[in-house]
């Protein structure tokens, strides 16, 4: 059966048409939300949750029920981490202002963050969000190349500004991306000739470059989330991006690595997702995990690209790079190092993936399992023909929620369980999830 691509906000979204099925207290809360926010209100799950607090890998609702969070990469070092909370609170009590004044904390944070990048990525521009960072990256790339054409993957999501929405096919409803955007398949070895994901991806990129140049739009940049999270999580084999990036740079285009999802150690084998592929991007964009819940983003690039951009336009951001933002960012880097969270992502991620592989042997509805570190995708399929089964995935997600597990969906068709817990996630937490998933799959056998 032919599957339709799912818009990213449609995955695991509460359906307002089903409000009559809500518990009375939830119904009142949802109605209040809708009255204020209207159609822009998006809630998770068939029965939305009122969350009141969180700590570590767990969240708690208004009734005191505890949920293990495998959904949220914002609080990457753990919800309400005391070191981050203390750093932000202390700095708020001292000073919070814009970046037109010299401030030791801001400069120290920039230096510490840039030390995690390879040469020649030596300049940082702070933003408030990943969307803002990707918007700025596009402006830098367009200025450098004097072209507009951008290549993205088929279910990519890079944010929600006007420019970035056009390069986010997963966020568009009822229309295609703009004419200057070329959409290609993610590097899925199952789609590639002879299973060579690297060659297939490079050929798709090369074709898109030729089409953009021949159309008169010109080729500007390839932008990818280097773990391809919205496409369904594709991380292996390590190195598959190399030949595509070489083609991009040989064609005088720029490679933009969107590290909002894989960055800050989530893959377990490097600080940044692009590092496991042995490539050096022209521009790197950062977001959500940067401040562990405090709104932060950033663009890291070569000094000459920043210089070239600033010759055309002045850039200033009132809230980005404030002393409080620097305090939050510095605390995150400290926790990553002191608590060994990158190594933990590797160790616990491998343990979790092994457990999922065991479940795959028992349940025909479990398809491919992909990912690295603490970012894993698990496909749910129709066992009769191995086709994507987003409806089954939705039932499993909501059933897991009833069993105290928070998890999301990904992929073009919304049939991939997106397993993305905080980096403090332990083997004991993994066992809790594996037991709940085992029980849920057994109760919902197809």
Outline:
The protein is of the alpha/beta class and 446 residues long. Helices cover 37% and strands 17% of the residues.
Based on CA inertia axes, which overall geometry fits? globular
Architecture (CATH level 2) name of the largest domain: 3-Layer(aba) Sandwich
Helical amount: 25-40%
CATH superfamily of the largest domain: Type I PLP-dependent aspartate aminotransferase-like (Major domain)
How much strand content do the residues show?
15-25%
Mean pLDDT across all amino acids: 94
**What is the alpha-carbon Rg in Å?**
22 Å
Q: Helix segment count?
A: 12
Question: Your description of this structure?
Answer:
With 446 residues, the chain is an alpha/beta fold. It has two domains: 8-77 and 341-443, Alpha-Beta Complex (Aspartate Aminotransferase, domain 1), CATH 3.90.1150.10; 82-338, Aspartate Aminotransferase, domain 2, CATH 3.40.640. It contains twelve helices and 16 strands. The protein has a seven-stranded mixed beta sheet with strand order 4-10-9-8-7-5-6, sandwiched between helices. A hairpin with a 4-residue loop joins strand 2 and strand 3. The chain is globular. The two termini are 17 Å apart.
């Amino acid at each position: 059966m032919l599957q339709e691509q799912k818009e990213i906000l449609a995955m695991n979204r509460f359906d307002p048409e089903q409000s009559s099925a809500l518990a009375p207290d939830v119904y009142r809360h949802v109605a209040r939300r809708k009255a204020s926010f209207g159609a822009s209100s998006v809630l998770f799950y068939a029965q939305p949750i009122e969350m009141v607090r969180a700590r570590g890998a767990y969240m708690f609702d208004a009734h005191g029920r505890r949920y293990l969070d495998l959904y949220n990469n914002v609080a990457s070092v753990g919800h309400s981490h005391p070191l981050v909370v203390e750093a932000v609170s202390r700095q708020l009590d001292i000073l919070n202002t814009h970046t037109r004044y010299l401030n030791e904390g801001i400069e120290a944070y920039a230096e510490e963050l840039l030390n995690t990048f390879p040469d020649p990525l030596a300049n940082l521009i702070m933003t408030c969000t990943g969307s803002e960072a990707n918007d700025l990256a596009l402006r830098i790339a367009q200025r450098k190349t004097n072209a507009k054409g951008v290549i993205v993957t088929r279910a990519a999501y890079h944010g929600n500004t006007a420019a970035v929405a056009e390069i986010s096919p997963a966020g568009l409803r009822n229309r295609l991306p703009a004419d200057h955007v070329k959409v290609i398949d993610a590097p899925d070895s199952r789609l590639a000739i002879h299973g060579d994901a690297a060659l297939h991806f490079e050929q798709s990129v090369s074709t898109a470059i030729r089409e953009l140049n021949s159309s008169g739009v010109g080729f500007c940049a390839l932008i990818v989330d280097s773990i391809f999270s919205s496409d369904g999580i594709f991380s292996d084999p390590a190195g598959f991006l190399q030949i595509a990036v070489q083609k991009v740079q040989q064609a005088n285009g720029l490679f933009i690595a969107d590290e909002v999802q894989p960055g800050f150690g989530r893959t377990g084998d490097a600080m940044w997702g692009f590092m496991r592929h042995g490539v050096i991007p022209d521009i790197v964009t950062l977001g959500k995990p940067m401040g562990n819940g405090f709104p932060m983003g950033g663009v890291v690039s070569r000094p000459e690209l920043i210089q070239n951009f600033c010759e055309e336009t002045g850039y200033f951001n009132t809230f980005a790079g404030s002393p409080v933002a620097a305090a939050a960012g510095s605390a995150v880097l400290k926790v990553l190092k002191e608590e060994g969270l990158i190594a933990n992502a590797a160790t616990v991620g491998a343990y979790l993936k092994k457990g999922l592989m065991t479940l795959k042997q028992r349940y025909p509805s479990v398809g491919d399992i992909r990912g690295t570190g603490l970012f894993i995708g698990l496909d749910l399929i129709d066992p009769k023909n191995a086709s994507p089964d987003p409806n089954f995935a939705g039932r499993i997600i909501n059933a897991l929620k009833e069993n105290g597990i928070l998890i999301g969906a990904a992929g073009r068709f919304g049939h991939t369980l997106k397993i993305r817990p905080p980096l403090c996630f332990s083997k004991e937490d993994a066992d809790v999830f594996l037991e709940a998933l085992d029980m849920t799959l057994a109760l919902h056998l197809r």
